[in-house]
Design goal:
about 45% helix, alpha+beta, 9-stranded mixed sheet
């Protein structure tokens, strides 16, 4: 449009924010070998309000420029590590990246490069803790590594990702409080490697966030079972009512029962809805890994279908019964 300028139009106040959102959270490119430690903290008791101060304190300690945190995400580049911070609806995530040398220990830990006092005071309640080590495939025999990792008897998940450009191994067990992933980089680009690590961390996060509904479902299941028994008794009482007083007594009990269920619905609807949404994100991130089977070992998709899907189905069933 010749001669037209943006100043001629009334612009929606959030237009640029909405436009930039698609570019807001790119993956951190990895310089293999590299290790990543990922932490996610639930928002509790005003922890969100303390995060900005805590992150600015880290920048000050490291002599870095004060980060802009208004958008809910930031990257801090320190000499020994990089930090990618993101604030989500229910939690905030901290991904620490540390470049490795070939001589580094077998199980490196990116947190070792982070000031101890600062990391111990991260606001919120820890829900996810994961170590990811990315090494060149050329320096590692994948079959020998898989055999060594499977030697402890735990179910080992081993799969090729990115249509065979990389390998992933994990047992989804906690080791000193952390789950561990080993990623072997065959022909991944730096950004591909970053995306794959980000997806693994998101799978861990979203599966645990989805499972927050499972203990709620068990509690609600007990309530519903009692309510169903009480309802059956009330139907018997209703059939045996002989006078208005009996009918009023039955109505009062029925009203209390309905109120109990309504309170339960109000308290749990968000949690059950969030579980379904998080589970869909788990499935989406797994699809984005583009897995290939390694003979004799389950893929991440198969493992989640077998271990996570039943719990999510239980939550969905309880939610339907409650409704």
């Amino acid at each position: 449009m010749t001669g037209a300028h943006m100043s001629q139009f009334e612009e929606y106040p959030l237009r640029k924010v909405l436009h930039d959102e698609i570019h807001a959270r790119p993956p951190i490119p990895l310089e293999v070998p590299e290790c990543v430690t990922y932490l996610a903290f639930l928002h509790v008791e005003g922890s969100v309000g303390r995060e900005d101060v805590h992150l600015r304190l880290l920048a000050q300690q490291l002599g870095l420029a004060e980060p802009a945190l208004e958008s809910g995400h930031a990257v801090l580049e320190a000499p020994e590590f990089r930090l990618k911070w993101q604030r989500h609806n229910e939690f905030s995530s901290y991904a620490f990246f540390h470049r490795l040398s070939v001589a580094d220990e077998v199980e490196p830990n990116a947190l070792l490069a982070v000031p101890t006092a600062w990391r111990n005071e991260i606001p919120g309640q820890l829900i996810v803790a994961t170590h990811v080590v990315v090494r060149p495939l050329a320096d590692t025999d994948p079959e020998a590594l898989i055999e060594a990792l499977a030697a402890d008897g735990q179910t080992l998940v081993a799969t090729q990702i990115a249509d065979g450009a990389g390998w992933v191994m994990t047992d989804f067990q906690l080791h000193d409080g952390f789950t561990r992933f080993t990623v072997l980089d065959g022909t991944l680009t730096q950004r591909q490697a970053g995306r794959m690590v980000q997806r693994l961390c998101e799978i861990e996060t979203y599966r645990l966030m989805a499972l927050l509904a499972f203990p709620v479902a068990k509690e609600v299941g007990r309530l519903i079972s009692r309510a169903e028994d009480d309802l059956a008794d009330l139907m018997d009482d209703m059939g045996g009512a002989r006078n208005p007083d009996d009918e009023r007594s039955v109505l009062a009990k029925l009203t209390r029962l309905a109120a109990d269920i309504e309170r339960s619905v109000a308290r749990t609807t968000f949690r059950f809805g969030a579980a379904a949404a998080y589970y869909r994100l788990v499935q989406q991130r797994i699809d984005e890994l583009r897995e290939r089977r390694i003979t004799g070992y389950p893929t991440i998709s198969e493992f989640m279908e077998r271990r996570l899907a039943p719990a999510i189905n239980t939550c969905a069933t309880i939610a339907r019964r409650q409704e």
